[in-house]
Amino acid sequence: MTLDELIADIESRGLGWDVGQSSPMFYEARIWDWPYVIGRHDHDFQEPITPLLMLEKAFAQVDLTTYQKKK
Question: Which pLDDT score is estimated for 70?
Fold first, then answer.
């Protein structure tokens, strides 16, 4: 799956997302159903990681039976 495909899947479920620097030493990927964060992955700068992998790890925490794709 590409980053664009994953983002499209997340957004098709009515969810928000972001990937960015959460502190001077950490990156963070979040998926939310406003105002609640329902998936999160923190990663330190010590090991390289792609935004796709971070978002995949956050998305793996989302209960897909609750957040089904909208038509």
Answer: 87
Beta strands in 1-71 (DSSP E): 16-23, 26-33, 36-44
List, for residues 17-71, the tens digit of each pLDDT value.
Answer: 999 887 778 889 999 999 999 999 998 877 778 889 999 999 999 999 999 998 7
Element containing residue 12 per DSSP (H, E): helix 3-12
Are 38 and 15 a contacting pair, CB within 8 Å? yes
Q: Which residue, 56, 22, 25, is CA-closest to 39?
A: 56
Per-residue CA distances from 14 to 4, 22, 26, 35, 47 (Å): 16, 23, 27, 13, 31
CB 62 within 8 A of CB 11: no
